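Entry for the shared binder. Reason: the reviewer on the internal report wants the predicted structure included alongside the sequence.
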Amino acid sequence: MAEGLDIFVVDDDAMIVDMLTSVLEDAGHKVASETDSTKALSEVIESTPECVLIDLMMPGLDGLEFCRRMRAVKALDDTKIIIVTGKAYEVDKKRAFELGADGYITKPIDPETLTGTLDRILGDEIEMTFWGVRGTLPVPGEQALRYGGNTSCMTLNFPRGQFFLFDAGSGIKNLSDHIMASGQTRLEAKIFISHPH
């Protein structure tokens, strides 16, 4: 993510606002915030930030209504909207994207991975990772250093949170190690198997 973005944080939990502000400012961004969603909407319209992080469940305007109203303002067409919420249900994600959200991050937020997640969303990039590339049998050892020794496993991680897993060969162990190390407590994925044995 480019440094120096204008980011506006809207969350009724002051501790979340403080944490997000700290992480984003440490990454070189200018951050404004508001805990009152009704006041925040007029401030966002006036300041036209490059990105708005919005909680989903707030008194006054909830995150979905906030998103809908933002998308009705022509001056905010280029502003990226990212929902940051404790609600992990697919129906909430789908509704947020229908109303114009560009990204969806589920709480609890990991400060270590937040900027990377925002980079992927704001950059509108797909992250492709090969966890294993071999054929039928794993080939561990020094002869596998250049190409890897695990059997087929590849992931695609999209900006809107879709996660696709292709094959579940022995490379899936490296993937699970990565997921566990990142502290993720929930993972929604679609798994495609190209060659069952």
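Summary line for the report: Residues 57 and 110 are 19 Å apart (CA to CA).
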